[in-house]
Amino acid sequence: MPLAPYGTENFDLSAFMASINQAIIGLVCHIFFSAGLHGLAFAFCIFMLGLLLSKKQAKAARPLQAVARKLTLFCLVICIPGAIALIAQGSLPQTGNLQVSSLGFIAFWSLISLHLSAEEMNFQWF
Fold it and tell me: What are the strands, taking DSSP E only, across 4-120?
């Protein structure tokens, strides 16, 4: 009778798939929910900036308000799975050892909103 390769006798496929499933649920629910909340706060700041500029009749007011609307819609969509998990379980799923940083989300949304603002200004002005 041939010997099995080293380490294969203790491998449990169902436990492996359960851990992968838990990681995906943690990623989609917890991290996307946190990213969406930070994005909503960032969209609110952009909208307020657009509102302030519209009172001064600046040319950049309409593009900033359009970017805030697009960003709000996207963030609400990515918050849906986390909100469902929060309502159903009372808390968000654990992400293991991963630590979520607000500074990282702020940097991420600033890059996204900068790109969207430039595209929207290019679209509306030219």
Answer: none
